């Protein structure tokens, strides 16, 4: 919490909503002669620490990209291993954490209908445990930004709306009511968004670091936050000194 105080006096807004493209598990494994599945397993291990570190910075909404609508293109064995890993991660880590921490809740964003039934039910079990708590972790699972926008528009139409607005459509996004991310971090060095939060990223600060996701540590979190606070967010306007 003291870190939040230190950084917010520098003039930038405080940081409330962060999203992460957790990329680089495969390359991490390859460098070590391990299977891609081992890379995903190593990637899962750093998640709880990363959540804790961002919470220390005062973040209340963390959105993690776990599996995209395009990741089904991967070999069957890898997809099956990821689904199994996520199932056990929810069962062994997410559900106990929600039970132990009174201020934490989890939401799975994306199209759950295509997930294996057991995983879909596990996601719902975790979501139903707690809602509307101060710290929200959105897990993007079978998530695609384009899919989300189409899904939102179709739901709005089904509800009888005939004229869409930004404000209205925002309320139909999977991420609602979490605010748009202040910062989107991508690990693994690739300079692209890969269909993540296309609607919500309009004015997010993009931070790409070369660190592969399983190696993401406290120093990387600190580096990303420092970089964020060095940015001038103008939202299309002007810096105060130029007005
Ligand atoms: C991200 O790591 C995890 C998922 C997409 C599920 P990758 O598996 O994409 O790792 P790289 O990019 O091949 O290193
Ligand atoms: C983005 O990573 C998806 C996740 C991290 C879950 P990818 O590895 O799928 O992205 P591309 O294919 O390199 O763009
Ligand atoms: Mg990748």
Description:
The protein has 243 residues and is α/β, with parallel strands linked by helices. It has one domain (14-230): 3-Layer(aba) Sandwich (Undecaprenyl pyrophosphate synthetase), CATH 3.40.1180. It is 43% helix and 15% strand. The protein contains 9 helices and 6 strands, in the order αβαααβαβαβααββα. The protein has helices at residues 2-8, 25-31, 36-45, 47-56, 76-100, 117-129, 145-158, 166-170, 218-230, and strands spanning 17-21, 61-68, 104-109, 135-143, 183-186, 205-208. The protein has a 6-stranded parallel β-sheet, sandwiched between helices. Helix 2 packs across helix 3 (36-45) and helix 5 (76-100) packs parallel to helix 6 (117-129). The longest helix is centred in the middle third of the chain and has 25 residues, at 76-100. It is globular, with a radius of gyration of 18 Å. It binds 3-methylbut-3-enyl trihydrogen diphosphate (2 copies) and magnesium ion. One 3-methylbut-3-enyl trihydrogen diphosphate (IPE) binds at residues 22-27, 67, 71, 82, 188.
List strands and helices in order, with pairings.
Elements: H1 2-8, E1 17-21, H2 25-31, H3 36-45, H4 47-56, E2 61-68, H5 76-100, E3 104-109, H6 117-129, E4 135-143, H7 145-158, H8 166-170, E5 183-186, E6 205-208, H9 218-230
Parallel strand pairs: 1-2, 1-5, 2-4, 3-4, 5-6
The chain binds 3-methylbut-3-enyl trihydrogen diphosphate (2 copies) and magnesium ion.
Residues 22-27, 67, 71, 82, 188 line the site of one 3-methylbut-3-enyl trihydrogen diphosphate.
């Amino acid at each position: 919490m003291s870190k939040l105080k230190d950084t917010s006096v520098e003039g930038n807004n405080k940081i409330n909503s962060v999203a992460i493209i957790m990329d680089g598990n495969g390359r991490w494994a390859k460098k070590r002669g391990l299977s891609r599945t081992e890379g995903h397993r190593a990637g899962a291990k750093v998640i709880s620490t990363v959540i804790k570190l961002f919470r220390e910075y005062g973040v209340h909404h963390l959105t993690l990209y776990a599996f995209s609508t395009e990741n089904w293109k991967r070999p069957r064995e890898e997809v099956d291993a990821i689904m199994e890993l996520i199932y056990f991660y929810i069962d062994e880590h997410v559900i106990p954490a929600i039970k132990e921490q009174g201020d934490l809740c989890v939401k799975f964003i994306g199209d759950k209908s295509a997930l294996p039934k057991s995983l879909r039910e596990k996601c719902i079990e975790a979501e139903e445990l707690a809602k509307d708590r101060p710290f929200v972790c959105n897990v993007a699972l079978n998530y695609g930004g384009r899919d989300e926008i189409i899904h939102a528009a179709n739901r709005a139409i089904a509800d009888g709306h005939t004229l869409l607005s930004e404000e209205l459509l925002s309320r139909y996004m999977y991420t609602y009511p979490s605010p748009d991310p202040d910062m989107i971090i991508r690990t693994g060095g690739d300079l692209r968004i890969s269909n993540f939060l296309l609607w919500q990223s309009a004015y997010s600060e993009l931070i790409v670091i070369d660190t592969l996701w399983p190696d993401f540590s406290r120093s990387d979190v600190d580096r990303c936050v420092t970089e964020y606070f060095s940015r001038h967010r103008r939202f299309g306007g002007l810096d105060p000194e130029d007005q």
